[in-house]
Every structure is written in structure tokens, then in C-alpha cells.
Amino acid sequence: MAAKRWTARIRDYTGSLSLQVKLALSFVLIIFIPMLLFAWYAWSDAADRAMKELTKKNENILDIERTNIQNNIEVMEWTGQLALSNREMNDYLELQEDMDTAWLIEFKNRTFASFQYFLFNNPRIANIRLFTSNPYVREFWPVVLKESRIKDKLWYDKVVAQQGMVWWEIGENRELLSGTSDGAAGEVSQVSLLRQYTYPGGEHGGILEVSMDVRNFFMNTYGSVQDPTSQLIAVSRDGAVYTDGSAELFGEATPASLIGRASLPQSEAKQVSRFELGRSSYMAISSYLPRLDIHLVNLVKLDDTLADIQRTRNLFLVVIIGLMALLSLLSFFMHSLILKRLRVLQDSMKKVRSGDFHVDVPVAGSDEVGELGHHYRQLLRKINELIAQQVNRQAAGKEAELRSLKNQIDSHFLYNTLENLKMLAEIEGQYTISDALTSLGGMMRYSLQWTRGHVRLRDEVQHIQNYIAIMNVRYDGKLELRLDIAPECLEQEVLKMSLQPIVENAVKHGMDDLDSDSGKLTVTVSAFVRLDDCVIEVTDNGCGIPGEQLRLLNGMLRMEEADYRERRSRTEARRGEGSGIGLRNVDHRLVMSYGQEYGLRVESVEGSFTKVVMTLPHLILTGGEPR
What we know:
Blueprint: H1 2-16, H2 19-85, H3 87-93, H4 101-119, E1 125-132, E2 144-146, H5 156-161, E3 167-172, H6 173-176, E4 189-198, E5 204-213, H7 214-217, E6 230-235, E7 241-242, H8 255-259, E8 271-277, E9 280-289, E10 294-301, H9 303-353, H10 368-395, H11 397-427, H12 431-448, E11 454-456, H13 457-474, E12 479-485, E13 493-495, H14 500-512, E14 521-530, E15 533-540, H15 547-557, H16 561-572, H17 581-594, E16 599-605, E17 609-617
Parallel strand pairs: 1-2, 12-14
Antiparallel strand pairs: 1-5, 3-4, 4-5, 6-7, 6-10, 8-9, 9-10, 11-13, 14-15, 15-17, 16-17
Helix pairs in contact: 2-9, 11-12, 12-13
């Protein structure tokens, strides 16, 4: 109900607007709404492209850092493999007795010095250490150390449990070398490759460590590859964050607080997430490195990008609004010029409404408005002609009334003449003629006294009985009318003269095909109520209609007029086929009076019967047709 009220209000409001305003509004709806939609789509597309380009750019930076990390991993693994494959160093680590000082000095100057130089030729390698459990091996700083120095480390048991597989650890150098002879100073974070090595018999020999400073290992994370709005961050398995803390990106929030809002995947596939912290928006492009068990995150601050997108959107809006205002003014001005002549027509119509039918319509031209002015002038001319004709009709009104009275006198004369003939036939004993004249008089009164188009079913049935009585004179009593009408249908409203064409059609075609020696043609009229409808059936026991002809007959009942005429011209050329014009006229009257769902339907079985079914709404007509 509320929706209907609002619809009515909108309709009333738009109806009160002038045509010029309506045209301007339609122009806005037709032109500017699609323009706004296109601008919104173009702006959204530009914003999406900007975000995709930003994402792609920072994904490339992340891929470069992954490649750099992979190269460093290979360098450290290759260095560790060299350290464990040196035969002289392996012989020293496998000593089974204490060596004297001279031997140790010679070993250090000859073997260990070259070994150390060879391993440390890569400047990115921070430390290479062999922690040994052999009691006969002496320490040579900073490469060969006792394993007892690291047994209290948290990662020691994990490295041993790897049984020769590489274990990666990220931590502070000071924690790793606590308890060394020189008390290592500084807290430089390092990435360490840790691996257990064994003696030839498989016995535990010690731990290999290859370390690299995190600034060298995560080169781009601490470098200047990125722009000020993005920064690479490495997150270790224990949640420690490694990045350039002095980067401009961390001016409003710490790296740890930002990483806490990012989504960190557990697969190597890159994952993009967005979040807000404070008044700033961020995008995190994350990737997992399973070999190091770390997450590499490229954190991007979106404030500048979003500001650019906002400026682009505002520019779109300003341009669209400006264009809308300019075109609206132009549209309003042009519409006023177009509608000027319509206002002239409007003024002339007001004069006509006041009674002046001799106004001049100064509207010319070959466009729609000019054509409208031309037809309006023709309309005024026609109105003046009709006024003159009406005056003539009023003058001739009395004459028409006299002619009508004369027609009534003529019909009464005809009725009286039939009554006189009927009495004469009765006097002469011609009772068949007398009954026929009675039926003919009833039919004449019913058809000539047409005071209204609807009658009771009982009146229409009486008219059919009179018709059958007259036709029995022609066919020597071979017609039989049977009635099977429910009592509640006797007062049913029917169209006057709607059953007589159906019965006449049944008699015509039934008697033409009836064998003169075979008996009578029986026409049965039945009526009953079905739900809210009254169904009237007219059935004859004639020869029936072939199936194809029956289908064509039913189709012709509601066929378009042009198609019906073409079909009728073909069927009339064939002998024995009816045109169905009587049934078609009755069906059209029923449709016009009651609606498309009511009307006629023909049923037939060849060699058995033909039935015409009339469906009407069940309506009771009080009174009836006057007799």
C-alpha cells in the first residue's frame, strides 16, 4: 500500500510539471544517467588499474628479494660443503691423539691459513665455524671451536635431530657466541646455516655453522631498491621482525604492529591483503619461504595511491557536473524554442473551450507541430460543420418521430393481419396452419421488439421452439427439439438471438445430410451450471463433421478478419463446407460482452453427432424480455 501511495504521488507530481520541464528531465535521464554510469565505470577501471599496477610492481620487488635470498642460500650451502670436503681439515678433526705444539703451529701456518683464506673469499660470509666434540682437537679461532660452547643453545638439539640435514636459524651473534674466549661484542643479527657432520664411522663429529649478516642476506630489505611508500620485511619463525626500521614507511607505526595486522600465508604462493591502522591504509604482499621457515612481506602504504585515485574521482565528478549543467541549460533553451508554437496552440484551445470556434491557428511548418496545427484547423472546421449538421438534425427530428410512429403502426397492422389469418385457419379447421401462424407471430414479436440486448434463457428457448415449429412445416415433422435445462438456468442471462443461429445451423446442415427414410433429426438444448459458469450445449444427431474440417471451423471462430475472409473464400468454393459466419458472429458477440474466456466451441464425431458448446458467466437476469 505504501508503494502504491508513493507511486500515485510521483505520478501526480510529474503530471503537474510543464512539458518543457518533462523534456529536460527526460534528456537528463536518457543522456546523463548513462554518462554517470560510464564515468563511474571509467573511474572504477582507472582505480583498479592503479591498484593492479601498484600490486604488480611490488610483487616484482618481492620476487627480486626471493631470488636474492635463494642466491645467498646457495652461496652458504656451497661454502659449507667446501668446509666439510677439505681433506686436511677432516684429518685434523679426526685426530685420535694429542699433537705437540710444533705440529699445531705448522698446521696452522700451512693448512689452516689457506683453508681460512679460501673459505672467507666471499665478503658476504660473516662466519664459518666448525664446532667439534673431539677432545684431541685444539681450537683455532674463529673457525675451529669446541662443541661445548653451543650445547646450551636452544637450536642445538634441533640441529642434532636433523641428522645431517640443514637447519636455518636467525638470531643475534652475541647469543650464538656467548662464552667465547674473547667475549664477542656487538649484537649483529645473522642468518646461520647449521648442520651436523659425522666421522667416517657415522659417529657424531660436531656442528657446522655458516653465518651471514641479515643486511647482506636480506639485501633489498635493508637496501634502497624500493620507493618510500613500500618496505620489505622478513618475519622469522619466532615472530622476530627484520627490516630497515628507519624507513619512511614506519613513521606512524612500528614494523611489529604493522606485521601483526597483515595476513601471513603458509604456502609459497603470494597473498595480498589490505588493512588500516590509524588513519593510513596498507597493503601487504606476503610469501612463505619453507627452507628458511620465514615469511617475506612487502608492505606498501596506500595513502598516496588512494589520494591520487580520489583526485581522479573528484576530477571526473567536476567534469560530469559541469557538463550536466551546461547541457541542461542548452536543452532548456532549445526546448523553449520548440514548444513556443505548442503554446500558441494551447492559447487557441483555451479560446475554443470558452466557445469561440472561429479562432485562427497561426502555426505552420512541415514538422510534427506544424502538422498538429494543420489537423487542429481541420478539426475546428469539422466541428463547425457538425454544428451545422446538428441544427439540421434537430430540424428534422419531428419528421423522424413521425416515421417511427408510422413503423409502429405498420408492425401492429402486420400482427393484426397474422391474428386474422390464424382465426380464419381455425375456422376452416386448418390447425397446422394456425399453429404455424402462431409461431411466426411469436418470432416476429421477439425479433422486432428489440428493447435490449440481454434476455432470459427461457425467452430464447421459447423463440427456438417457435422456429422449430415453423421448420417442421417445411420438413413434414422430421424435426424434434429436446430440452434438458436445469431449473437454475432458466433465468440465466443470454444474448438475444444467440441460440437461434446455432439451432438454425444444426437444422440446415443436419437436414441436408439426413436420409429421408432414416427418421428424424433431433436437436437437444441442454444447460447446466459448472462452477461459476453456465454451459449451454446444442447437440444434433446428424452425420457429424470430419476431423480436419472441425479443426478449421474452430480456428475460424476467432481468426483475424483478413485471414478469415481468405479462408472463407476457399471454403465457400468447396461444396458441402460451411463458412461458419453465423457461429463466428455469435462468438464475437459473446467475447465483446463477457471477455475472451467465454464463447463457443464445436465438438463432433463424424457419423455420430455435432455439439456446439456455449460458455457464459452464471448471471441471473431479473424481469425478462417483454412479450
